[in-house]
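Narrative of accomplishments. A recurring question from our advisory board has been how the design workflow behaves on a single, concrete structure rather than in aggregate. To address it, we present the structure tokens for one chain from the evaluation set, followed by the sequence designed for it. No filtering or post-editing was applied between the two.
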């Protein structure tokens, strides 16, 4: 790592972040994000981001206590995207970059029957796994984790992340509209689909969690939107949460924190998530949930991560607006620990660099305990 001091003014210390994730009070309120778009990282570094060393340097200089890398089955997401995703070239950021965005259409599906499910080219559970920093090419999991751990500066931890059992695979492969109809018309197909994806993901987490240097696991699985859940809690409890619970046991067996990302209003199923062994939830979308209410109801049971408003403050506000919102979260949510500052989704390429830096600077300036 370069001799330059991180924005935080201190060296990384994953032990502090771990304390917060397990709902304790560390020496300071950590900063934590699911990911940052490449444009933001390049603007912060002042050069293109091409290598793992570049990506780790960004996290180090920005003042984070951990580095997050994404695990997947080789080619699975790309194969689905090639067959299904719609793509559009857009310019939508203050960095004047043209980029391609993609999404899975709700009305189209790759699997509509048991025969199609059986014929789909599923990988072997736990085999041919890859890992990559966000925006970087994937490499074999074991090799990649060794390289990451060897390149991390002293004190920085490693969190391994995955896309979701429901969002990225069950929903996208079946198509959201078809999934909803199939719940009523052919529940056995839904059950088998969850079982197939869940088996793959449990094997992935068993392999990833066992590797030396892995400090925490993070499952990103959007199951809600601002007005409520995407499907019934009873269906989640029957088909989805048993897999979450199994992953939670894997994390616990290695004494690793288990983090969960979903946008939207999770309040009806927060007790279920706690029962699954999830220690921290992110990003706590402001228009969906009141973070002060969650702090009151789940203090000591869930670490709260994020909540700095991406819909206005980080994207359209001024640096002073960002600093004020961070200070308010520190004042109301920080006391007692169990809180990490971050965006209410991720640091997207339409967040101005000055606002991203203001969020971090305010966190580091005002987030040392005892909070004042």
């Amino acid at each position: 790592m370069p001799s330059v001091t991180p924005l935080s003014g201190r060296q990384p210390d994953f032990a502090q972040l771990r304390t917060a994730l397990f709902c304790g009070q560390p020496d300071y309120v950590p900063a934590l994000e699911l990911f940052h778009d490449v444009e933001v990282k390049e603007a912060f570094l002042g050069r293109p981001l091409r290598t793992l060393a570049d990506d780790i340097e960004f996290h180090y200089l920005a003042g984070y206590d951990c580095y997050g890398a994404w695990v997947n089955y080789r080619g699975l997401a790309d194969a689905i995207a090639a067959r299904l995703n719609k793509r559009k070239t857009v310019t939508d950021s203050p960095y004047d970059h043209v980029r391609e965005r993609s999404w899975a259409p709700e009305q189209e599906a790759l699997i509509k029957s048991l025969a199609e499910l059986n014929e789909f080219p599923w990988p072997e559970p736990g085999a041919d796994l890859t890992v990559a920093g966000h925006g970087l090419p994937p490499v074999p999991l074991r090799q990649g984790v060794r390289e990451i751990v060897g390149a991390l500066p002293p004190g920085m931890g490693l969190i391994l992340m995955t896309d979701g059992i429901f969002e990225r695979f069950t929903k996208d492969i079946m198509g959201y509209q078809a999934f909803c109809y199939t719940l009523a018309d052919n529940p056995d197909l839904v059950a088998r689909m969850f079982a197939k994806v869940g088996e793959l993901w449990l094997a992935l987490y068993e392999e990833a969690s066992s590797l030396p240097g892995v400090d925490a696991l993070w499952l990103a699985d959007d199951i809600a939107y601002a007005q409520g859940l995407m499907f019934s809690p009873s269906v989640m409890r029957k088909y989805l949460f048993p897999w979450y619970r199994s992953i939670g046991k894997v994390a616990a067996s290695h004494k690793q924190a288990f983090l969960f990302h979903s946008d939207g209003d999770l309040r009806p199923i927060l007790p279920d998530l706690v029962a699954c062994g999830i220690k921290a939830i992110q990003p706590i979308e402001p228009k969906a949930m009141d973070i002060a209410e969650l702090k009151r109801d789940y203090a000591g049971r869930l670490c709260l991560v994020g909540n700095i408003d991406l819909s206005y403050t980080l994207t359209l506000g001024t640096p002073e607006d960002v600093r004020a919102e961070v200070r308010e979260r520190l004042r109301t949510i920080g006391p007692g620990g169990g809180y990490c500052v971050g965006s209410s989704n991720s640091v997207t390429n339409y967040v101005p660099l000055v606002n991203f830096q203001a969020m971090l600077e305010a966190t580091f300036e005002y987030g040392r305990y005892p909070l004042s």
